[in-house]
Amino acid sequence: MAHVSNPDDFQADERSAEGLSLRELLTEDFQTYGRGLGEPGLWAVAVHRLGSRIDQTPAALRRPLGVAHKLLFTAVDWVWGINLPRTTRLGRRVRIWHNGSIWLNARSIGNDVQIRHDTTLGSVHLRDSDRPDQLPVIEDRAEIGSGACVLGPITLGRGAVVGANAVVLQSVPPEATVFGVPARIMPK
């Protein structure tokens, strides 16, 4: 596989993340992060990929892999401040820029999504954080700015852009740009 600096280079391959082997996903992630092993986002995504595949491994390996995942997940959270639960359905070529104070508890994050630091995805109320029906869906090619909060059972449409420090509490249509607290759609 050639080095890929632009997500558009992958457009011909629209298989889902579940349709690829762990090795294929990790190779693609490595390329998405410019082959930089020191990228905190790469480590968060790699640990997530490992955790999301635990249930598909032979029963004898599930417990040791679960312990390894928990240790790695905790290390990524403590060292870089990136919390990406294995229950979040993660697409391909997701790029987490920078690190620090990133909480990504969503029902799903699509392909080619760009996420900046200090971002929160989750439920409106803490008591609902384990309920998938109360978590946001981030569709393909969405971009989320620094300090943004995307909360509740809403959808960020394909190609939507969330401005820095926006608080998004309502669904955003595809290709729309939102800014502010609460976030409002900006005219084109």
Describe this structure in words.
The chain is of the alpha/beta class. It has one domain (18-185): 3 Solenoid (UDP N-Acetylglucosamine Acyltransferase, domain 1), CATH 2.160.10. 24% of the residues lie in helices and 18% in strands. The chain contains three helices and 15 strands. It has helices at residues 22-32, 40-52, 59-80, and strands spanning 82-83, 89-90, 95-96, 102-104, 108-109, 114-115, 120-122, 137-138, 143-144, 149-151, 155-156, 161-162, 167-168, 177-179, 184-185. The protein has a six-stranded mixed sheet with strand order 3-6-9-12-14-15. It has a five-stranded parallel sheet with strand order 1-4-7-10-13. The protein has a four-stranded parallel sheet with strand order 2-5-8-11. A hairpin with a 4-residue loop joins strand 14 (177-179) and strand 15. Helix 1 packs antiparallel against helix 2 and helix 2 (40-52) runs antiparallel to helix 3.
Low-confidence stretches: 1-5
Proportion of residues in β-strands? 15-25%
Largest sheet geometry: 6 strands, mixed
Q: CATH top level?
A: Mainly Beta
Question: What is the fold's blueprint, element by element?
Answer:
Elements: H1 22-32, H2 40-52, H3 59-80, E1 82-83, E2 89-90, E3 95-96, E4 102-104, E5 108-109, E6 114-115, E7 120-122, E8 137-138, E9 143-144, E10 149-151, E11 155-156, E12 161-162, E13 167-168, E14 177-179, E15 184-185
Parallel strand pairs: 1-4, 2-5, 3-6, 4-7, 5-8, 6-9, 7-10, 8-11, 9-12, 10-13, 12-14
Antiparallel strand pairs: 14-15
